[in-house]
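Researcher: I'm preparing a figure for a lab meeting and need a structural model of a single chain. I don't have an experimental structure, so a prediction will have to do for now. The sequence is pasted below. Please return the structure as tokens so I can convert it later.
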Amino acid sequence: MTLEKVKKDILQQAEKEASKIDASAKKEAAEILKKSKNEVKSYKVDAEKNHQNLVSVMERKVLSTAKADAQKLVYDAKEKAFQEVMNTVELELVSMEESERKKFLESLLSKAQSTIDVGAVLVSKQDVALIPLTENIKILAFDISGGLIAETKDGEISVDLSIKEQLEIVQAEKLVEINEVLLGK
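Model: Understood. Here is the structure written out token by token.
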């Protein structure tokens, strides 16, 4: 064997090895590329799922907030209407004709007398003359829209039968029913 032949054999063997290594590297590169493409595809699928979930969560949140806002607006409108009704009732009671107001005040005084020993009655300035005068009861003008406040002679016990107080009592007693109307239940 000559040196040329040995050289040629070594080159051929090197080319074969290089060819094998090149084929193996190309095969490995193709597998890595395929694996990478599958991973990217999987990431895209996961990202799309996450995006859809996020969009769904945001939609539910926005709809929930909008629904709560709408319910609050409806509640506020109903509450405002209810307060307007209460104000109208108070105004109608305050502006009754004098003869009706006199009967109303007499019935309130009678109610107070059944509860305490009345020594003084506080009424609005316009109603002072409507309470029948007696020796035992002082009639006093007071800053009150209507109705009366009765007190014992010593002033320690009082019964508030003012229109405002009576409407608040009715409102408190009917709170469940009022809330059912306001909340639409």
